[in-house]
Amino acid sequence: MNLTAENHRMPLSDGNSIPVIGLGTYADPKKTPKGTCAESVRIAIDAGYRHIDGAFVYYNENEVGQAIREKIAEGKVKREDIFYCGKLWNTCHPPELVRPTLEKTLNILQLDYVDLYIIELPMAFKPGEAIYPRDENGKWMYHETDLCATWEALEACKDAGLVKSIGVSNFNRRQLEMILNKPGLKHKPVSNQIECHPYFTQLKLLEFCREHGITIVAYSPLGTSRDETWVNVSSPALLKDPVLNTIGEKYKKTAAQVALRFSIQRGVTVIPKSFSPERIRENFQIFDFCLTDKEMKEIEALNKNIRYVEMLMWSDHPEYPFHDEY
Ligand SMILES: NC(=O)c1ccc[n+]([C@@H]2O[C@H](COP(=O)([O-])OP(=O)(O)OC[C@H]3O[C@@H](n4cnc5c(N)ncnc54)[C@H](OP(=O)(O)O)[C@@H]3O)[C@@H](O)[C@H]2O)c1
Q1: Which residues does the UniProt site feature Lowers pKa of active site Tyr point to (predicted)?
Q2: Which of 89, 202, 225 to mutate to test the pocket of ligand 1 (most atoms within 8 A of CB)?
């Protein structure tokens, strides 16, 4: 498929399509000045991005919605050009909470629908006001997880027109199979958003998803922000990799651009986060060069099975997804 800056959508299994690069919008809210996210989304849309990845728990969905609506009002884009992905958080898995939670997101965004809504993690937490519920001893308060029931509630949101496509995130093969084999399945997940980059190429999960028409959306495609709250910072930094940098020199591209190009060339959608105007623009400049088969193989060989986002604090959850091989 010949992807260009102007036309870089890939088909999804439900007949819709997804732009292969999107702007990630997670940044520590305590360290990010108000308005930074909105400004970054405006810059991204002006630079050619049509896909924005967000979530209620990023605490900046209001800014994402504001920027999208401004760009529509300006006439820069139409609503149907934009692809917004929102996420259902762990405390909102009970089926009766799914639609009200999505409606809350639509209300924050001030949009009529989202393009993709995904179950953010396969681990349910105790419903309630607290996003990260813990008891008086600091122990995480989990909740019975019934992924099939949550999925059925998502299917109903699609049928009601609140969301165009539905998918999952951080699901392993067993959890995907649970949905795919659910009796009476109405809509298959179109995508699985997972960590994926040259140090964690996810070959087996990629292959499984390909066989089942599930698009992989790669989070942390640049190797994360290396924020210690979430990231195993003892792992080597992806963008310092000599192979990525040497290949970059040949094309006058950065290691980041090479890493992103590698992913889209293997059919993986990327959602790099940047709130810096130069890097937002830089990350979109990946449609004017092409890696050779030899270079693709060289980059594939960098795989070290490094998962930066391990979420080990929840590893005792019955549905913690990363105990399985894939
Ligand atoms: N579903 C999930 O569980 C999940 C988990 C993690 C992330 N996500 C989503 O995926 C998005 C991306 O993942 P991520 O934020 O973990 O990591 P990432 O996109 O791999 O990396 C972001 C970091 O790289 C820096 N950066 C961006 N472009 C760069 C460039 N060209 N050169 C050098 N550094 C660059 C950014 O800093 P500046 O901002 O200063 O440029 C930021 O510190 C998130 O924002 C979020 O939307 C989803």
Answers
A1: 87
A2: 225
